[in-house]
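Figure 2 data, in text form.
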Amino acid sequence: MVTINDIREVDASRDVVWDIVSDVDRDPEYWSGLASIRNIRKEVNLVEREVVVGFMGRKGTQRIELVPKESIQMIMIDGPLRGSREIELIPLGARKTKIEVSWDIQFSEIPVFAQEFVRSRLEEGTKEALDKIAKAAEGPRKQLHVQNTKD
């Protein structure tokens, strides 16, 4: 198993961050390795979907469980990667949230010679996703602050 972890503190409430990360239909906007998604089943806090991932367009199946305002657990059932990714939100006050992302994966359909490349892309993609999530979460508040200082 390969483990990848990253953490980011965001200047936004847990509610604001949750609204962004829980909209899993928009995952391709944040997670660069995710080319497309097609929902197979969607319930209140459960999504099963087919995905196309990576530059080679490999297909996989994912199951996502949402624990409102706390975490998102994605299980990769089949495809080039198997295992899990968890996003956990930890409030650090009214307007600050820590986002913890942890991957626990196996390379099920990736040749040995390419595994280190895929691992580094997952690490980079996680950092990029956290940057995009932070920008989205902090953006409206910053704009509101700028408008208020002009008055």
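Caption note: The first helix runs from residue 14 to 21.
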